[in-house]
Amino acid sequence: MGYNNRSSHGPYAPPALDGLSLAMGSKSNSASKIQVDHARIEAAVREILCAVGENPDREGLLETPSRVARMYEEIFAGLREDPRKHMQKTFAEKYDEMVLVRDITFASCCEHHLLPFFGECSIAYVPNGKIIGLSKIPKLVDLFAQRLQVQEDLTHQIGTALQEAIKPKGLAVFMSATHLCAVMRN
To answer: CB-side exposure of 95: number of CA atoms within 13 Å?
Structure first.
């Protein structure tokens, strides 16, 4: 359990859940049931520190495993929340001009190197009789960003979620990001 096979999970399902029941809206299996195993993370971080030649018992590193576990719980919170709950409320609207939400800042974590990538996202859509509250769009970006992934998947997840929620006439999701795995490794 915990292996992420996106082909069976869909854009909403956290990897450790039954993707089909969550994607179909089942209430029996909730994302909030996923718990972060602090002890396992702490042991793994301690082992990594030893493996790279560091002393995990030196003063500056004594609390690092615990800090990393708490940080992972925070930055991967999107694994424990179903983004659709923020898109349930839509509004009937005859407006048919483009809606644009620009410069939404986000931070996520690369699934290949476990390093952050961050940047800005802009989303535009042409309503088709339904709109979503503007504040829900940045929330959607944040929730999907709080998962291990690549930028391409993040972009696709956001677009798919909006497409399913409001079925616009047209939709564009543009993301520009700095990837620390590329910056730090040249």
So the answer is: 12
